[in-house]
Design a protein that fits this description.
heterodimer; A: mainly alpha; 12 helices; B: mainly beta; 26-stranded antiparallel barrel; four-stranded mixed β-sheet; 37 strands; about 5% helix; about 65% strand; globular
Chain lengths: ~325, ~700
């Protein structure tokens, strides 16, 4: 064994050891340290009391005429008396399930100059953190996707459930794909700009929504994709590109993003660049792929086929892969 | 690899610091003062006395029916892309029916654009908290170009030229083409998407979900095929279908969530190949008709396991593992249907099989009310198990080429990530992420890439309630070529120096500031910057720089009046180096997209019965390409302008009946030299559909009456 190989083996072994050390340390410490329990032990807190009449207490003031109309909730799962485990079911805490115990908020008369005690309003005015607000939602929404919220990208960005979801409505707008671009675009401005480009997926028309490709609550990839990879997400609708082909085009099998901008582009086909220049990012070293197709080619009779129309794809039409035994150059 | 040690050293130091920090719990000391969890500490509620007498009963049956009459000023073909709005379809209907009772049963039915090609139908029914069934059907018309001009007719898998056809290369340049007998075809593909979804939540902690999706695409696609240097555009009829079935069973307890899923997808194509007549003189005898392959029928399967163990609300350990397979086994076409060039294939069908593996392990822990960590490991493998054969292709039905082996493409990707989030004051937060990724690709060359970097985020809020989000990252990617395919010399292998494997340094920064300037006025400013510099990349992309910035303002100038304004600009600059080893030239590209828009919404006008909304949007996209050879050459700019003005006035005629008047002006102006300069016979060697335009400039008016019940 030569020295380089020995170093390589040692280096790899070190990486494994370091990796295991980190994981074991984090796991063991995670189970030792529990923020909630620590707080419970030490907090010297005032206990808030629930209201005497539940929602009837709240609805005396908060109705459809108030600044924030609330009654539409009774046309939704959250307000239905027979929704299993719902806030208004027989075991539910009604409004206080989410807004917390009313405490002194329900005092009938306030002394002059006094401000009514606050409850959790799911706004910026709240004194509790978004994590704590989200725990109120997660205490019921345990199943399926929301279960994975802890540790997700959006949780790390300190989003509250109510940043995207509306509760006091019959149908939550974010669940309608036509509304998603506007809502998500408030933070994801780059993607929203792209969707207004000349070429884009049908996002602005509402036939596609952000959730057709992305799992907002969590996913096992950085872009929060609904499938395990970019390509697998695209194959949901573009399965004809899946193959596997006899002659694969490596960048295509690698990632659709090598050539496409999925949120929108100024180039037809959502391409990142115009052909032939896009193709020449890789195919540029020799022969006709290395020709400089400039403005003079627009006048030429012979060479313009390299530049106009489908450019390289005028001949190499099977850019996504070919299944023809003579298709190694993606011509068939 | 210095970079590797760069991360590892810091990881070790960081971990030790974390360990020390956790043991000593320094964050806890500050948490008590920061935390407001006291507000969540509650007494027991006496819900027996909660009768909910003021709670309104659910409206059992509600809904609406609306009738739309529309008038389109122009027969703008591409305007109906997605919208389905066409001049000869002036009436369409929308309706909604919603049912809900106090027992928790509900049903919803939604119908939109009945009468147009963009029909949407949604149905939903269930029992809250128990089960739900949904049906979703959608038509999405894709209208590319109107009236393609072509001499081809489609007959039983064969794109045929007319009997009188004179080969294009025998027609002089100055001689016009006689197109009187050519046909005009619309380049449109209609998508039809049907989705069925069923979910059931049992009382024994099991959830079941079943999703089915069927997607049909039919219409006419632009295609092209070549015989050596002569190419022709072909109107290709397509009829494809994709079916997906995704089943999931989940089990959850207080601390454990377990999900087992199975996914199957099948793609079918009504044609596996097409013949086409070459409109040029053939180079060899017997090659008048060529054959090309269509997308092969294929399947994909995946079994998935999701495990989430959550010992408490502050800790989560997630495991995801998936095994997948993609396959197709279509019979191979002959090398050529030219009998003079016929020879034996090494195999009759290509049994392509790709196995995929996905694994991820993630740990989240909120160590204290102010400190959180995230650790992630991801593994992804594409293992192409397809057989390798030596093929001897017939190049474009003209000559027998060199023998070549199909080389399956494989990759393995691994990622590590460690995040630490620290809330150092009640609404002030900082986070840091360390990331590392290893990617190994194997095909024409065996490449290994290592990318590592750091991401920092800052979320601040000042006393004036202004929010500042700042994010910056730095990444470095090193490439290492481990081997290359024996028959490819370095200079001929385009994959060795390509941009997605070349050494690269990437810097990104992002800032977002939002502020409530007053009770009525709110504003946002955002900016983004990304710079990628490719090192040791002899050919291909050298620089890729992107910027965008924007501002938007929301002004509620009266209780029922709101005005918004937004401006956004994105710039993309990319430089590529192209050429042989001895002579390089560069191409520079510049994309500039500007969006400017406003909306005005006023409600409760005319005795609180009317509302008005005005929306204007201008999207201006400009692409420039400039190349440098012996002298600089600049190609004509590609300009895309999309403008829309929409004025909507609605009036409540009676409690049940409302009317709405819509005026919309929309313009699409696309100026693209690559399309505009096309002629039916471009050069001496390209038969096209001619110069086509997607442009329109139209006025659309509609009147809608809605009856609500």
């Amino acid at each position: 064994m030569n020295e380089a190989l020995i170093k390589s083996v040692i280096n790899k072994a070190m990486k494994v050891v370091v990796g295991l050390f980190i994981i074991l340390t984090l796991v063991s410490l995670s189970f030792l340290v529990d923020a909630t329990e620590q707080k419970k032990q030490s907090s010297n807190t005032e206990i808030a009391e629930y209201s005497k009449a539940g929602a009837d207490t709240c609805l005396r003031c908060h109705d459809q005429e108030s600044t924030f109309p609330v009654l539409a909730i009774f046309n939704s799962a959250h307000g239905n008396k027979n929704a299993k485990h719902g806030p208004f079911s027989s075991s539910g805490l009604q409004c206080e399930s989410c807004h917390g115990a009313a405490g002194k908020h329900t005092v009938k008369r306030l002394r002059k100059g006094r401000v009514r005690a606050a409850m959790i309003s799911f706004t910026d005015q709240d004194t509790i953190s978004n994590d704590e607000k989200n725990q109120l939602c997660l205490s019921c929404h345990q199943a399926s996707t929301t279960r994975h919220w802890l540790g997700s990208t959006h949780q790390s960005s300190d989003l509250a459930c109510t940043d995207c979801h509306q509760i006091h409505v019959r149908n939550d707008p974010i669940l309608n794909s036509a509304q998603q671009l506007e809502q998500c675009g408030q933070c994801h401005t780059k993607e929203k700009i792209a969707s207004h480009s000349a070429f884009s997926h049908p996002l602005t028309s509402g036939q596609m929504g952000c959730t057709d490709c992305h799992a907002a609550h969590d996913a096992n990839n950085e872009q929060l994709l609904a499938s395990d990879s970019v390509n697998e997400t695209c194959y949901q609708c573009h399965a004809e590109k899946r193959g596997p082909f006899l002659w694969e085009h490596e960048p295509v099998s690698d990632s659709c993003l090598n050539c496409h901008r999925p949120h929108g582009s100024n180039q037809a086909g959502l391409l990142t660049q115009r052909a032939p220049y896009l193709c020449q990012n890789c195919h540029s070293s020799d022969g006709h792929p290395s020709f400089s197709s400039g403005s003079d080619y627009l006048q030429g009779q012979q060479a313009s086929a390299f530049l106009l129309g489908r450019s390289c794809a005028n001949c190499h039409a099977k850019v996504h892969g070919s299944n023809h035994p003579s298709g190694n150059k993606l011509l068939r | 690899m210095n970079g590797v040690s760069f991360i590892n050293k810091r990881l070790i130091i960081y971990t030790i610091l974390l360990s020390c920090g956790a043991s000593a719990s320094p964050f806890y000391a500050s948490s008590a003062s920061i935390s407001s969890e006291s507000e969540l500490s509650t007494s027991a509620a006496k819900i027996d006395n909660w009768h909910c007498e003021y709670c309104p009963n659910a409206q059992e049956l509600t809904g609406y029916v609306s009738l739309n009459f529309s008038l389109l000023s122009d027969d703008a073909y591409t305007f109906s892309t997605n919208t389905g709005i066409e001049k000869d379809k002036p009436v369409f209907v929308s309706a909604q029916l919603m049912y809900q009772n106090d027992q928790g049963q509900y049903g919803q039915f939604y119908l939109d654009k009945l009468g147009l090609d963009s029909l949407a139908l949604t149905g939903k029914a269930g029992l809250y908290g128990s089960y739900q069934f949904t049906v979703d059907y959608q038509q999405i018309p894709q209208r590319k170009y109107h009236q393609l001009l072509t001499p081809f007719t489609f007959n039983d898998n064969h794109l045929q030229l007319p009997d009188y056809w004179q080969n294009l290369d025998t027609i002089s340049t100055n001689q016009g083409l006689d197109t009187s007998n050519w046909q005009q075809l619309d380049n449109a593909i209609d998508w039809q998407k049907l989705a069925l979804n069923w979910r059931y939540f049992s009382d024994d902690n099991f959830d079941y979900a079943l999703n089915y999706q069927q997607l049909k695409k039919s219409g006419l696609q632009q295609f092209s095929a070549a015989q050596l240097i002569n190419a022709s555009y072909l109107p290709l009829p397509i009829n494809q279908q994709t079916e997906l079935l995704d089943g999931n069973i989940s089990y959850h307890q207080d601390k454990l969530y377990l999900n087992l899923g199975y996914f199957i997808s099948h793609f079918s194509n009504s044609n596996d190949s097409f013949f086409y007549d070459n409109p040029f003189s053939s180079y060899v005898a017997g090659s008048k008709t060529g054959q090309f392959s269509a997308e092969p029928e294929n399947q994909a399967y995946k079994i998935k396991l999701n495990l989430n163990y959550r010992p408490r609300m502050t800790t989560s350990l997630k495991l995801y593992a998936a095994l997948g397979k993609m396959e197709q086994n279509n019979a191979l076409l002959p090398y050529s249907n030219n009998a003079f060039l016929a020879h034996d294939l090494p195999v009759d069908d290509f049994n392509a099989q790709v196995a995929t593996k996905d694994l991820s392990l993630r740990l989240y822990n909120k160590w204290s009310p102010t400190f959180k960590i995230n650790a992630k490991y991801q593994y992804k493998q594409r293992d192409n198990k397809s057989n390798r054969y030596n093929f001897t292709p017939v190049v474009t039905d003209t000559f027998i080429g060199d023998s070549i082996e199909n080389i399956p493409y494989d990759f393995t990707k691994e990622k590590w990530q460690l995040d630490a989030n620290w809330r150092f004051y009640r609404k002030q937060k900082a986070s840091i992420s360390l990331k590392k990724a290893n990617t190994t690709r194997f095909a024409l060359a065996h490449f290994k890439n290592t990318e590592q970097g750091i991401v920092g985020k800052l979320q601040l809020q000042d006393q004036a309630n202004r929010h500042y989000n700042i994010k910056a990252s730095h990444f470095k990617r090193d490439g290492e070529k481990q081997s290359e395919n024996h028959y490819l010399a370095v200079s001929q292998n385009p994959l060795l120096y390509r941009y997605n494997t070349a050494d690269r340094i990437e810097n990104k920064a992002n800032i977002h500031i939002s502020s409530n300037l007053s009770n009525q006025l709110a504003g946002n400013i955002n900016g983004y910057f990304s710079k990628r510099r490719y090192h040791q990349s002899t050919l291909g992309l050298q620089d890729d720089n992107r910027y965008h910035y924007g501002i938007d303002i929301n002004w509620q100038f009266k209780p029922h009046a709101n005005f918004t304004l937004f401006f956004q600009q994105e710039k993309i600059n990319a430089t590529s180096k192209i050429g042989s080893r001895f002579s390089y030239w560069t191409s520079k590209h510049h994309d500039d997209i500007v969006n400017l828009g406003m909306t005005l919404k006023v409600s409760q006008l005319i005795d609180d019965k009317a509302s008005l909304s005005i929306e204007a949007l201008n999207s201006d996209g400009n692409s420039q390409s400039k190349i440098t050879t012996t002298s600089s050459e600049k190609l004509p700019d590609i300009k895309n302008i999309w403008r829309r003005l929409k004025v909507n006035f609605s009036y409540q005629i009676s409690p049940q009946l409302s009317g709405e008047l819509l005026y919309q002006h929309e313009k699409l102006a696309s100026d693209d030299f690559a399309i505009d300069k096309l002629e039916l016979k471009t050069g001496d060697n390209l038969l096209t559909f001619g110069a086509l335009t997607p442009n329109y400039n139209l006025n659309y008016t509609s009147m809608k009456f809605t009856y609500t019940f």
